[in-house]
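Possible regression after last week's pipeline update?

I re-ran a chain I had predicted before the update to compare outputs. Posting the input and the new output here so someone can diff against the archived version. Not blocking, just want to make sure nothing changed silently.
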Amino acid sequence: MVGGSIAGLALAGLLDPERFAVTIHEERPERAEAGSSLALWPDARRVLDDLGVGDRAGRLVHEVGTGSLRDATGRPLVSPPADASMQMILRPALIELLEQAVPDTVRRVHERVDRPERLPADLVVGADGVRSVVRRSAFGEHTVPRLTPWLALRGLLPGTPPENGEYWGRGDLAGVVEAPGGTYWFTTHVSHLGALPAEAGGDPWRRSLVVDVGEALAEARRVFEGTADRAPVVLDVLGRADAETTLAQRIYEAPPMRRLVHGRAVLVGDAAHAMTPNLGRGACEALVGARILASELNTRDLGSALTRYEARRLLPGAVLRRTSHALMQVALATRLQPARDRALRGVGTALARAPRLT
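New output (post-update):
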């Protein structure tokens, strides 16, 4: 297993220890302490039940009401039903739960893997994210991750937000959600920070890894404060955020994949279908993919298991990746932003007038 985050830990916890000797290679285990608040969909909760940590997860999950989709000023565009809710969990808490489910028989190696094809194993699992070295090794240089124009910031601040919501502006978006321990906030805007042009040289798989958080925060404040009538809650979280409590990352997407299996290599999680965060499905798809791969490996011979896994996961992952990308383009529209807002406001009005089924 190359990668010891959500997908890798879940798979290690679900594989039959009587059948598999598992080694997890993780370069930076300290990354488990960083992260954000993650949505846990029902299918992801079922994976935690399968891992035997469902009850503990129930004590760490925070159920919150879903917020309205609003324009940049805070005016509602589309509002969910009053009783709609979602479950959130902090990423470090989820990682800790998954660690508890990993058997003691799993071997840990804290080092970077540059040549996964040399690992002495019958199966090499790429659970190493959007810049997967396993994907590169097995499928070739053409599977380099795609750098999007967007920079994402997120963090956790004390206090409860006045209400949950997402705010779509002209070429930017922001959101605030009640989370365990406070307010989870996020923003996305077009940025050149950390985005080296191709002519700058260097390895495209390692390019644009570091974004200065202080610079990113300063740029986000200029973007969001530079437009009149911004929603006060967005300006408030950006004003209170600091570099110590904020993550700033370029958004990458996995390339379109026609296969998830090549030889003795298989991809799972973001290595297979990393997507923009708009659908809130990244962590869930990592857990679901790990469960499907484990269920096939535990009950079939290796060749049949990998064939079945690919058949079950290739299309759903591709659909979600394309859907989330399309949603990001709509959310960050510039020239079409007024028409987008009018259309969404019409949808919201129609939903509000529609009769509720009981």
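Follow-up from reviewer: compared with the archived run. The chain has eleven helices and 15 strands. Marking as no regression found.
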